[in-house]
Amino acid sequence: MERLGGTVQNYAWGSTDAIARILGVEPDGSPQAEYWLGAYESSSSTLADRMPLADHLRSHPEELGEACRTFFGDRLPFLLKILSAARPLSLQAHPDSHDACTGLDDEQAGGVSAGERTFVDDWPRPELMVALSEVEALCGFREPRRTRELLDGLGVRASLDAVYGPLTERSGAAGLAEVFLDCLAGDGYRLELVGEVVSAAVNHLDDAGELGLFSRTAVELDEHHPGDPSILAALLLNRVHLAPGQGLRVPPGTMHTYLRGTGVEVAANSNNTVRGGLTAKHIDVDSLVRIVDFSSGPPAVVEPHPDGGSEVLAEYPTGRPECRLWSIRLRPVGARLVPVTLLPATDQPRIVLVIGGHLVCSSAASTEEIVRGQALWVPAGEQVQIQGNCDGFVVSSGLDPDGVSLRI
User: Is pLDDT of 188 > 90?
Assistant: First the structure.
């Protein structure tokens, strides 16, 4: 068990103060979008002796545990992040294992330089975000006929049929795929149409219900990406509001973006991102066609459930072998810090992060106290008892003790 320091990712859409506040440091004025805890090769966390965790695990692969090594090889399978968005991210989706391998092989064979690649590793990237603040997001495709009803409700003067007609003329995923990709064309008509849609949406900002929310989505996106035709594509997605403590599961292939808010995200140990709009970066249409799930349905909003009846640990189901996530909520009884159950997943590698308060972690070998913004690396096989007064999270691989079955 050792202290673990993460790495800050300074993307333009990040907030300037939320991550710094959680880490207990002064903001430096730069947009801090993500704080990574894990062993991703190009941005590995560091242990207390300043050794990168990725290098440490190459020397001590036994700390991953037998089941994890059997299933994933000598690689930590998960990343734990703090994510804070002050403005919308690009529309994006992440690949599954097959598409990640295929995409990386194709780009390497084609001589695509590392800086221009869509695929930067050969791993899938499922995600689960847990809101720390109010979070607004777009995730997955709305039922096509309902989207057309909302568009018609705006009262746009121009005809919508040239772009949005397939929503009702074709069935299901085929119609959504045709419309989404067509919206990325960016020709004169689509540039004109996005202006018409946003202008019409302004008149419905105060409407109650879904039409008002739909209108606000159009106007908010236009504030950050004026006249961008991919706004027409973004309007095909479900709008999602997460209250603090709620989670959003984002399987591979799911088109999504976070509009604003701060949360903790657990993902597979990958940085593969296929962009589909709301960005000045390259949009790889061929990869979108290959990896995006164009079926419609409600977003996968998840609630935590007590771990074995525990009042301290609650699990957010990921349904993935790469990662499991629990929240920790510890409160003292009177003046006493009451010992509680061992940290879960003793047979798996874990990272513990404190969001607020303080946490005392005790094992046979050592005791560590961490406070807001601090984290611990806990090797597989190390039994750790926790006590304190804190809110935090613990992440492990998503393997069952047999090393094969998934926790759904």
Answer: no
Last-in-domain residue among 235, 265, 289: 235
pLDDT of amino acid 114: 74
DSSP string across 119-141: --SS----EEEEESS-EEEEEEE
Q: What does the pLDDT read at residue 403?
A: 59
- Residue 1: inside a domain, yes or no? no
The CA–CA distances, whole Å, from 152 to 2, 129, 211, 217 equal: 57, 33, 10, 15
pTM of the model: 0.95
Residue-wise pLDDT for 85-121, tens only, equals 999 999 999 999 999 999 999 999 988 887 778 999 9
Q: Which of 190, 239, 275, 320 is catalytic?
A: 275
Cα 61 from chain centre: 27
What pLDDT, in 10s, does the model give residues 244-277? 999 999 999 999 999 999 999 999 999 999 999 9
The single-letter code of the amino acid at 258 is Y
Look at residues 401, 400, 387 and name the one whose alpha carbon lies nearest to residue 312.
387
> How many domains are there within the chain?
2
Is 84 contained in some domain? no
Q: How far apart are CA 203 and CA 304, in angstroms?
A: 38
Range of the domain at 221: 143-235
**Exposed, middle or buried by CB within 10 Å (0-12, 13-18, 19+), for 20?**
buried
Residue 276 in domain: no
Report if residue 204 sits inside a domain: yes
Do the Cβ atoms of 180 and 236 come closer than 8 Å? yes
Q: Which of 235, 263, 294 is the last residue of a domain?
A: 235
Residue 190 annotated as catalytic: no
